[in-house]
Specification:
With 349 residues, the protein is an alpha/beta fold. The protein folds into 2 domains: 125 residues, 3-Layer(aba) Sandwich (Rossmann fold), CATH 3.40.50; 164 residues, Dihydrodipicolinate Reductase, domain 2. Helix content is 29%, strand content 20%. A 7-stranded mixed beta sheet has the order 8-9-7-10-13-12-11. It has a 6-stranded parallel beta sheet with strand order 2-1-3-4-6-5, with helices on both faces. The two termini are 33 Å apart.
Amino acid sequence: MIKASVIGATGYAGEELVRILMRHPAVEVVSLASKSFAGQKYADIYPNYRNLTDLELVVPDLEQAAEISDVVFLALPHGIAAGQVTPEILEKTCIIDLGADYRLKDPYIYTQWYKLEHKSPELLKQAVYGLPELHREDIRDARLIGNPGCYTTCSILALAPLYKNGLIDLDSVVVDAASGVTGAGRGLLQGSMFCEADESFKAYKVASHRHTPEIEQELGLQAGEDVTINFTPHLIPMNRGILATCYAKLKTPADETTQQKIEDLYKEFYDGEFFVRFTGSVQPETKYVKSSNFVDIGLVVDPRTNRVIVTSAIDNLMKGAAGQAVQNMNLMFGIDEKSGIDFIPDFPV
């Protein structure tokens, strides 16, 4: 059995991790940590665990968790993991960081977007960006994973085949993405309160969202050169889910065969990927991926504007956070990649 600990177990992503790990056939959860709720039973914080676990939350201590765990999941705000993860800890345990500290390869870009000096830049070279569909073999050999952000997972997987095959004008890409309120975390934020978010739809952090450089980094790797995108996130009044709508100008004029050609390209690119469901010209919907690790991707070629419009849908707490983290763990420990996360999406919800 893989002994697993979760630090930051009472946030939304942390709780989703616990839910998955407790039913995972190859995992024993040995420790749950929370700064805010240390000393309390987990089932008292989340009553959906009543009669399912007697685990008591402990004070976060990465060194102690490393001594008793094969893998430690860090579901923490940015800036914390980088100050705690060390080479010595990585000799004892594997780390999967659901925060932003080990996603970006360039510490200068991290500082530019997160307004913090990176506290362990020497570890960035060995950290692997945990998007299995693009970095599977590197993940298998990794000790430190930077688990991708939710917007980034949805956007990168939607666009990667176009960048990889050089089909689009790299200066033309626009990504509009809408997320459910859990994407903002469990903290008390005015914009996430029911009366603020309900019956409203808004853009936020326009031209300044921190997932932007992460998307550009990964799409640049596919293109073989630096890329720039326009990324605009939106808040939508639902609990969970992300829908990204991505626009790109085609390099060559579209004709009646272009739709089928690009559909075939996507099918080939994601051939054998269990968690990527390509829907062709049928538009994905968030309700059909809810509580699952799937990403649904569809596209339409518009000959009138010579653009391709790609839409993708994920559950931000699953493929956008906890589900993907467990997918990475499965790869790191050489077990079935689908193990513990092959949920059929909930419907209706």
